[in-house]
């Protein structure tokens, strides 16, 4: 009798699996239908982008964004919405950014620049010095102090266009923006100019943060547009004695109290968390529609979709809108610190911070054997919706401090071909957002949360 019952149990489990898979597929279909019928996320982003705009941490606009998104989430079916305090850096750009290349042989050319985040300014009167063009840190070091001291170093390193995955090209080129000022200052440079880290050959300078090395004098650092970099490089070939004038008035002010905005839907296993999020801060030169207003509203929408469809939370669902990803990562670090202090376990932490373009899949930071188990499931369940990239390695900056205390870290991976045309520029604006693509990203996130909630990812 016991043997017969055991065989029946095995048969029953096998018989129910196709039915369960069919029910999961039907629910995901409903997620997409609801997302594509809804304009909710798009409308939230319109207000965040056009009414509030650039919202660098410490600014009045960042404070307004916190209050707006808290008010939005208060209208939705969360069990609780609250603010998590975090002290953030307060860097201001100032009211003047000018650059001019001066050649005795070829005349002068004006260049479009923007100060790099966290940079010191030149102050009134600016800096004027000869320019040395380099294409790598190895080349910089080979020139040595004798040829660098008293000069402005021009890092002319374009993104490698041969990479189909543009984030790979970004990862190679961005180190000159982040580390270039200190590497040049070690050899006595008085300032640096960095070719904008972007894919387009246009006249839009791309900002972004730098990191000063402790013990190395901080020097002014600016980004020049790709076209400006080409013009400056051509001028230096014609006249190596060309000088560059730069004036910026940026400065760092004392830290400011700000907040991560958090909303929760409590599950039956309340201390096990499925978190979704993006970063609420955005650079001050644009309105941060793609970076990362899109990720914020998609995260809120993902949970709204599941609630609207009546999905029961087995685990606690949490939306986290992080503050200060762009020039400090303070929000992400504070969130992880508090989670560890509370003894919380994150089953899944999912971040959207790659733009509001058509979703193509997800990247995962997790155990390789676990990834291999779920890869076929994801492909079979989500490929119908254009999601076909499921790769091991990578997630998101704000959730990275959770590594070691989360089972799965994941990042939404949209089509990346246009992202670095707009990234950190004045043209990262709401008019570049496609409503349908934004909705598809939210639906993709909701689908992954649903699968995790059903216990299918672990």
Structure report:
This protein has 458 residues and is α/β, with parallel strands linked by helices. The chain folds into two domains: 262 residues, Aminopeptidase (3-Layer(aba) Sandwich); 156 residues, Glucose Oxidase, domain 1. It is built from eleven helices and 16 strands. The chain has an eight-stranded mixed beta sheet with strand order 1-10-12-11-13-16-14-15, with helices on both faces. α9 links the parallel β14 and β15. The longest helix has 36 residues. About 3% of the residues have low confidence.
Structural class: alpha/beta
User: According to CATH, what is the class of the largest domain?
Assistant: Alpha Beta
Major sheet characteristics:
8 strands, mixed
Radius of gyration: 24 Å
Major sheet: arrangement of strands: 1-10-12-11-13-16-14-15
Q: Could you tell me the number of beta strands?
A: 16
């Amino acid at each position: 009798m016991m043997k017969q019952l055991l065989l029946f149990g095995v048969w029953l489990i096998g018989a129910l699996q196709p039915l369960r898979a069919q029910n999961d597929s039907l629910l995901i279909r409903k997620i997409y239908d609801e997302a594509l019928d809804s304009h909710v996320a798009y409308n939230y982003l319109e207000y965040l982008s056009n009414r509030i705009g650039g919202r660098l941490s410490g600014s009045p606009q960042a404070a307004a964004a916190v209050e707006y998104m808290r008010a939005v989430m208060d209208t939705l079916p969360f069990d609780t919405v609250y603010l998590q305090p975090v002290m953030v850096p307060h860097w201001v750009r100032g009211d003047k950014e000018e650059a001019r290349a001066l050649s005795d042989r070829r005349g002068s050319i004006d260049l479009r620049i923007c100060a790099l985040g966290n940079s010191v300014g030149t102050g009134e009167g600016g800096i004027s010095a000869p320019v040395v063009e380099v294409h790598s840190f190895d080349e910089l070091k080979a020139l040595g102090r004798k040829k660098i001291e008293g000069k402005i170093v021009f890092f002319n390193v374009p993104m490698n266009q041969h990479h189909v995955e543009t984030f790979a090209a970004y990862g190679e080129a961005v180190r000159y923006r982040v580390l270039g000022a200190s590497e040049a200052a070690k050899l006595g440079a008085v300032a640096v100019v960095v070719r904008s880290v972007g894919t387009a050959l246009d006249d839009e300078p791309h900002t972004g943060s730098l990191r000063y090395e402790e013990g190395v004098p901080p020097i002014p650092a600016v980004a020049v547009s790709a076209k400006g970099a080409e013009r400056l490089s051509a001028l230096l070939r014609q006249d190596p004695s060309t000088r560059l004038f730069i004036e910026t008035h940026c400065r760092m002010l004392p830290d400011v109290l700000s907040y991560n905005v958090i909303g929760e839907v409590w599950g039956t296993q309340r201390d096990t968390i499925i978190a979704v999020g993006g970063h609420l801060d955005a650079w001050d030169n644009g309105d941060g529609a793609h970076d990362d207003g899109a990720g914020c509203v998609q995260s809120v929408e993902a949970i709204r979709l599941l609630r609207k469809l009546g999905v029961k939370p087995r685990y606690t669902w949490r939306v986290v809108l992080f503050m200060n990803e762009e020039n400090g990562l303070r929000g992400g670090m504070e969130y992880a610190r508090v989670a560890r202090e509370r003894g919380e376990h994150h089953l899944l932490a999912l971040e959207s911070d790659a733009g509001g373009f058509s979703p193509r899949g997800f990247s995962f930071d997790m155990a390789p054997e676990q990834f291999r188990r779920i890869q076929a499931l994801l492909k079979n369940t989500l490929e119908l919706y254009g999601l076909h990239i499921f790769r091991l390695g990578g997630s998101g900056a704000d959730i990275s401090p959770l590594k070691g205390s989360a089972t799965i870290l994941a990042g939404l991976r949209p089509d990346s071909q246009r992202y670095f045309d707009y990234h950190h520029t004045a043209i990262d604006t709401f008019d570049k957002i496609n409503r349908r693509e934004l909705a598809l990203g939210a639906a993709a996130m909701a689908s992954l949360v649903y699968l995790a909630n059903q216990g299918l990812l672990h």
